[in-house]
Design goal:
Chain B: One of its GO terms (cellular component) is nucleolus. Chain B: InterPro entries: NOL7_C. The structure holds two protein chains of two kinds. Chain A is mainly beta. Helix content of chain A is 4%, strand content 46%. In chain A, a hairpin with a 2-residue loop joins strand 54 and strand 55. Among the domains of chain B are: 44 residues; 63 residues, no CATH class. A three-stranded antiparallel sheet of chain B has the order 1-2-3. The chains are: A mainly beta, B mainly alpha. At the A-B interface, helix 4 of A face strand 1, helix 5, helix 7 and helix 8 of B.
Chain lengths: 686, 258
């Protein structure tokens, strides 16, 4: 494999934002997650829990509610008072409609999917009609005294329950008047000065209203009489979210202490027909508040301030008990946030509102395998580039020669030219960027840094030629007629002839840059692409999918390579397929065409195509074999996949030159150190 | 009346005469005041003075002037008229000033607004609302001849606003400032409500450091508190502590030297 010096980088201060709302869509098995910075991410739960789409955030858009409507339409409401509909095909915001009620706290879609209810700051509940292309205001319900923090429809669509501060109201939908007003105790069997905030309500079809509040209680109310039926005190802190399953036999609640409780409807004795709600399972997968929970038919989904998304499949609901039934915790991003300039040893870090440019340190010492070499020159923070405006940065890139930086937000595209004199760097902005470049999903520079490739969210690919201090628009590849599909990933061949682009569903398109036309399309695969790269010299396109399959496609021959067919026939090792995190970057060694370097969050692997492939019986993760081991053992365990788990959690890994690697790690402890304060827990013995 | 106080300084009679005239006028007026119904205490105070001044006037030995009621009344009316005139003049002056200021304001506002042709276009343009920051106006390509556009856009507030895009000319965007302050304040109040209810007083929150340190304490192999294990923790506090220690040492050295 060779010996490498590894730059271990830990100064990327990446802190993801906390999860605020979660909405599960049953028809497509997709999960929409909205974060505190306004980003909305769509996870495809059947494609190995891969984040396939995302909408960039906005500073003023404090999303407080998210819901799916009929026909795969996603709506969100926030504290800026607007209802936003997202276009899932074009990956932009369709429209934002002001609800004129002040900040929006809650939103619920009717069971039939055609009406939308919004609970506002001024105490009004507004009903909107969902028309095929927009939403239309229908009427207001009776106005309440305090803000409406949670809403829930009765499955028949005739009544709704609205949770506010210190009380819950039940409305009749036809008349719009409040039928019952149920007052909630401020504290369990006591009086407290703090107001009781009803964070969540759920309406069951037998008329029971379940409410969760800030005093730590889960209460069952009878909506016909407006009385309290049962009271469960489950936590010392707020219970912040509730989600009921479709069959209404189980529901899940999330507390501020990070515990998620599962309630189930069980019969009182083994052969009686009478059932009651019992708290069955506690799960402690979070350290901070669990602000959003969702209940899919087979799993409990929770997300909160500690930024993890936890999907816990329920054992009794899962049909096949294999690795799919294990706990999934999504912590690290599924996209690349770091780009690297190999010639100048520069790293560009992408944050939500700024970019940082660092130069790697250097060392003159040498050592043996496993040594830590002292730095003769420290890593240097060269540039801190803040973006103007409230929008988040979608993507960014630095050219391989290090003289161009480009990044894009929803409304603008920025291109900067960097000049290096001795140790100083100066920045110059290229003005008057064309408008069609904005909302780019992926930016890539060619190897010789003369061309810029931009994939926009409308499905088109733009090629820009870069000249000294200015640019010239060369060509735009339009998407196939009829489809508006956003191109998410780009790869360019080192010789500059081929450009590969992958969308969200169709296959990978390969374009010929010299003749500016489509060359071929790799056949579509039912799992989304997570990483793309084109090898030098051989021009083989290596594609990694979210189900951990890796394909190699030869571009000049327009077919899969021999090696790819062999490994598809044999299949990957079962441990390889059971990894949870997707492969986010693929790169190649300039002198060794048989090596492919790829990494995911917890390992990096060099695939040696000349060595035999492992079958299920061989050991996948070999430790580095010592030289004095016998040849027999070495022959038995030598296979193509050389995996190392030394550096984790990895955000980025690349080959800088023949003997140097750079690995950007982000230890979880450093993320936790910057989170908001958690609830104090009293533990025995401390 | 007995003269209780002897006069200390004898002022020359000429001065007395001068004094006498206004004094006599005052006397007359005082008398008239008495006739007109002024408070008796004032009248009661006056006779004393009258007597004293008459005492001074005795040097002059002039008979007091006779003023008819009509003339005094005319004088009083003159006085009132004069006062009324001055008040009216003041009022008109103030009005003028106010008018001038209003005009000045209107002119300034007009200067701030975009020229008429753009405003016309705005009212006839489509109703699409796009949110843009005003910083963009400064850099967007203005394809108008007059520079008033630039001035107008430069003076706008730098906040996120709702805009209306102008029909065919999408090279710049206009801002609508009305109602944005109210919306912002409501949003801030809502965010403050959430912050207060989750992290405000009465909630049982602790720092991440203490939270993790408790966990370390409960592990089977006990570890130290998180702030000591992680070097990056509490760098500001450590810096402050270092600075304080240095200053304290210096102080200690100074006092020990003495």
């Amino acid at each position: 494999m060779g010996e490498f010096k590894v730059h271990r980088v830990r100064f990327f201060n990446y802190v993801p934002s906390g999860i605020r709302c979660v909405a599960y869509n049953n028809q497509s098995n997709r999960l929409a997650v909205s974060r505190t910075d306004g980003t909305v991410e769509i996870y495809n739960l059947s494609a190995n829990y891969f984040q396939e789409k995302f909408f960039p955030g906005h500073e003023s858009r404090a999303t407080e509610a998210l819901c799916w409507a009929k026909g795969q339409r996603l709506f969100s409401g926030g504290l800026n008072g607007e209802i936003i509909e997202y276009d899932l095909q074009a990956l932009n915001i369709k429209y934002a409609m002001d609800a004129f009620g002040g900040p929006i706290w809650s939103m619920a879609v009717s069971p039939c999917g055609s009406q939308l209810l919004v609970g506002c700051e001024d105490g009004s509940v507004k009903l909107f009609q969902i028309t095929p292309d927009k939403i239309q205001f229908e009427r207001n319900f009776d106005r309440q005294k305090s803000r409406i923090l949670s809403l829930s429809w009765h499955p028949s669509g005739t009544h709704i329950a609205a949770g506010s501060i210190d009380y819950i109201s039940v409305f009749d939908v036809k008349s719009g008047s409040a039928v019952h007003k149920m007052l909630v105790d401020r504290q369990y069997m006591g009086v407290s000065k703090r107001k009781c905030i009803i964070w969540g309500v759920a309406f069951l079809s037998d008329g029971t209203v379940i409410s969760v509040d800030s005093a730590g209680k889960v209460q069952f109310w009878d909506s016909a009489t407006g009385t309290l039926v049962k009271n469960h005190l489950i936590a010392n802190a707020d219970v912040q979210s509730i989600a009921v399953s479709d069959q209404e036999d189980s529901f899940v609640v999330g507390t501020a202490e990070g515990t998620v409780f599962h309630f189930q409807l069980v019969s009182v004795t083994s052969n009686s027909s009478e059932k009651q709600w019992v708290r069955t399972k506690p799960f402690q997968h979070h350290t901070h508040d669990v602000r959003a929970v969702a209940h899919s038919p087979t799993a409990l989904i929770s997300g909160g301030t500690d930024t993890h998304l936890v999907i816990r499949p329920l054992m009794e609901k899962v049909e096949v008990k294999n690795y799919d039934a294990a706990l999934r915790k999504i912590t690290f991003p599924h996209r690349r946030l770091i780009s690297c300039s190999k010639k100048r040893h520069l790293l560009l870090f992408q944050f939500a509102h700024h970019l940082e440019l660092w130069r790697l340190g250097s060392t003159v010492a040498t050592g043996k395998n496993g040594d830590t070499l002292p730095l003769s020159k420290d890593a240097d923070h060269l540039l801190h580039l803040k973006t103007k405006g409230p929008e988040n940065i979608i993507c960014s890139c630095i050219s391989p020669c290090g003289s161009w930086i480009a990044y894009s937000t929803t409304s603008r595209f920025f291109l900067y030219r960097l000049n290096y004199e001795h140790d100083n760097i100066s920045l110059q902005r290229v003005s008057k960027m064309p408008a069609f470049l904005r909302s780019a999903l992926q930016i890539l520079f060619s190897e010789d840094s003369t061309k810029l490739f931009v994939a926009s969210n409308q499905g088109s690919l733009h090629i820009i030629r870069l000249l000294e201090g200015s640019f010239k628009h060369l060509h735009t590849f339009q998407p196939q007629s009829g489809t508006v599909e956003s191109m998410c990933l780009l790869a360019v061949s080192p010789d500059g002839n081929w450009l590969a682009a992958s969308g969200t569903s169709a296959g990978v398109h390969v374009y010929n840059i010299k003749h500016l036309k489509l060359h071929c399309t790799v056949p579509a695969y039912n799992f989304p692409v997570t990483a793309l790269a084109i090898a030098p010299n051989t021009n083989n396109l290596v594609i990694a999918h979210s189900d951990q399959q890796v394909f190699e496609y030869s571009i000049p021959d327009k077919q899969y390579t021999e090696w790819s067919r062999t490994i598809q026939k044999q299949g990957f090792h079962y441990l390889w397929l059971q990894r949870d995190t997707p492969i986010t970057h693929i790169s190649f060694h300039p002198k060794r065409p048989m090596h492919i370097l790829l990494h995911d969050a917890y390992m990096f692997c060099i695939i040696d195509k000349s060595l035999p492939l492992p079958n299920d019986k061989t050991l996948l993760y070999n430790p580095l074999p010592p030289t004095n081991e016998s040849d027999v053992i070495r022959r038995r365990t030598a296979h193509a996949f050389k995996i190392s788990k030394i550096y984790k959690p990895l955000l980025f890994m690349d080959l800088l030159d023949e003997r140097t690697l750079v690995a950007v790690e982000r230890p979880l402890d450093d993320i936790i150190a910057q989170l908001p304060p958690p609830i104090k827990k009293k533990k025995f013995g401390t | 009346m007995v003269q209780l106080r002897p006069r200390a300084s004898r002022v020359p009679p000429s001065a007395m005469v001068d004094e006498g005239q206004p004094a006599s006028e005052e006397e007359e007026e005082a008398e008239h005041g008495l006739l007109l119904g002024q408070p008796s205490s004032g009248a009661a105070a006056e006779p004393l003075e009258e007597d004293d001044e008459e005492g001074d006037d005795e040097d002059d030995d002039e008979a007091p002037e006779e003023l008819t009621f009509a003339s005094a009344q005319a004088e009083a009316r003159e006085e009132e008229r004069r006062v009324r005139e001055s008040v009216r003049r003041d009022k008109t002056l103030l009005k003028e000033k106010r008018k001038r200021r209003e005009e000045l304001f209107i002119e300034q506002k007009k200067r701030k607004l975009l020229p008429d042709n753009i405003l016309e276009k705005l009212t006839t343009a489509g109703q699409t609302n796009i949110k843009k920051s005003s910083g963009k106006l400064k850099e967007a390509n203005l394809q108008k001849e007059n520079e008033d556009c630039d001035k107008g856009s430069d003076s706008k507030k730098a906040k996120v606003q709702k805009v209306q895009s102008v029909g065919q000319d999408k090279s710049y965007l206009a801002l609508r400032l009305k109602g944005q302050d109210l919306r912002d304040s409501r949003q801030q109040a809502a965010e403050a409500f959430v912050q207060n209810s989750l992290y405000g007083p009465g909630t049982n929150r602790t720092t991440v450091n203490k939270f993790l340190s408790l966990e370390h304490k409960r592990l089977p192999v006990k570890k130290a508190a998180a702030q000591f294990l992680n070097n990056a923790w509490g760098t500001q506090k450590k810096q402050n502590a270092k600075r304080f220690k240095r200053r304290w040492m210096v102080r200690k050295m100074k006092t020990s030297k003495k």
